[in-house]
Amino acid sequence: MLTVSTVNVNGLRAAAKKGFVEWLGATDAQVVACQEVRCAPEQLPALLREPAGWHTAHAVCATKGRNGVCLFSRTEPESVRVGFGEAEFEDSGRYVEMHLPGLVVASVYLPSGDVGTSRQEEKERFMAAFLPYLVELRGKAEASGREVLVLGDWNIAHAEVDLKNWRGNRNNSGFLPEEREWLGRVFGEAGYVDVQRRLDPHGPGPYTWWSYRGKAFDNDAGWRIDYHVATPGLADRVVEMRVERAPSYDQRWSDHAPVTATFDWPPP
User: Fold this and answer.
1) Annotation says 153 is catalytic
2) Which of 153, 162, 194, 226 is catalytic?
3) Residue 58 is labelled as binding a ligand
4) Which residue range forms the structural domain that includes residue 41?
5) Residue 226 annotated as binding?
6) pLDDT tens across 63-98, in order?
7) Which family does it belong to (predicted)?
8) Whole-number mean pLDDT of the chain?
9) Which listed residue (58, 158, 228, 256) is catalytic?
10) Could you tell me the CATH number of the domain that includes residue 117?
11) Is 142 annotated in some ligand binding site?
C-alpha cells in the first residue's frame, strides 16, 4: 500500500509549535506534501529540516515569509525538480516534484487570487502556464513507466458540492467560472483524475479548508480546495481517502486539514 498526505500548513514553523511535529511523527504516510511553508529549510528546527526517516525537498519563495512548498518522502528520490519551467514562477515557491520508483509526486500551491487585482492576474498566468506543463509531465511519465500524483492547495473549488456557500461565492476568486473550467480541463484534456471524486462522485465535500473567521469550522462551512490529482493508472488503485479534520477549533494547527489517500500500490 502507498499512503500519501497533503496539507497547507499555513506557516510550517507556526504549525510545528501547534501539533504538526506530532502529526508527522504519527502518520503512516510514505509521502507528505506541504504548502505555505513560508521559510527556508535552514530556518526550520532540525527535527523538521532533517526529520529521522524522511528525505525532503523544498521550493523556497524569493520573497521572505511567502509561499513555499515541500515534500517529505520515506523513499530517497531519484531526482528532484523545483519549478515547472516558467520564468515568472521559478523562484515563487509554488512547485516541487520528486521522482520516485514508478511515481512522480509533486507539491503545488496555486496563487489564491483576488478579483479585480493583480493577484488574480497572477493566478491566471500561473494556470495558463501550468496546464501545458501537466500535459508534458504526464507524457514524460508514461514514457518512463511512471504514474503522476500532484498534491496541493489548488485554491479552486471545482463544483458546487465542493464548498458550503457556493451561491454566495460565485463572483469570488476560487469559484469563478473560468477557474472551475480550467480545473475541468486538468481533469479532461490533460488526462488527470480528481482522486476524491473517484471514490465519492457526488459529495458534498469533504471540505479541507475553513476560514478562521466566525463559526466556519464549527459549522463545517468550508471549501474543498486541497486535491490529490493523479494519472488514471494510480487513481484507479485508490482504496481510501480521509480528511484529517481536527476534533475541535482549538486543536487546529492550520486552517486546512491534511487530506490522506491510500493506494493499492505498486501494482502486482
Assistant:
1) yes
2) 153
3) no
4) 2-263
5) no
6) 999 999 999 999 999 999 999 999 999 999 999 999
7) Belongs to the DNA repair enzymes AP/ExoA family.
8) 96
9) 256
10) 3.60.10.10
11) no
One of 109, 192, 207, 227 is an active-site residue; which one? 109
Task: Indicate the pTM of the whole model.
Answer: 0.97
Determine if residue 171 is labeled as part of a ligand binding site.
Answer: no
- Residue 67, domain member (yes or no): yes
Which residue in this structure is represented by grid cell 530556518? 43
Determine, yes or no, domain membership for 122: yes
Cell numbers linked to 122: 497572477
Active site residue 212: no
Q: Known binder of ligand: residue 36?
A: yes
What secondary structure, in 3-state letters, does the chain show? CEEEEEEECCCHHHHHHHCHHHHHHHCCCCEEEEECCCCCHHHCCHHHHCCCCCEEEEECECCCCCCCEEEEECCCCCEEEECCCCHHHCCECCEEEEEECCEEEEEEECCCCCCCCHHHHHHHHHHHHHHHHHHHHHHHHHHCCCEEEEEEECCCCCCHHHECCCHHHCCCCCCCHHHHHHHHHHCCCCCCEEHHHHHCCCCCCCCCECCCCCCCCCCCCCECCEEEEECHHHHCCEEEEEECCCCCHHHCCCCECCEEEEECCCCC
Structurally, how many domains does the chain consist of?
1
Q: Quick: pLDDT tens for 2-20.
A: 999 999 999 999 999 999 9
Question: Looking at the domain assignment, is residue 268 inside a domain?
Answer: no
Q: Has 158 been annotated as catalytic?
A: no
Residue 166 φ/ψ region, left for φ over 0, alpha for ψ in the -120 to 50 degree band, beta for the rest = alpha
Q: Which residue has the cell 531519484?
A: 78
| Structural domain includes residue 15 | yes
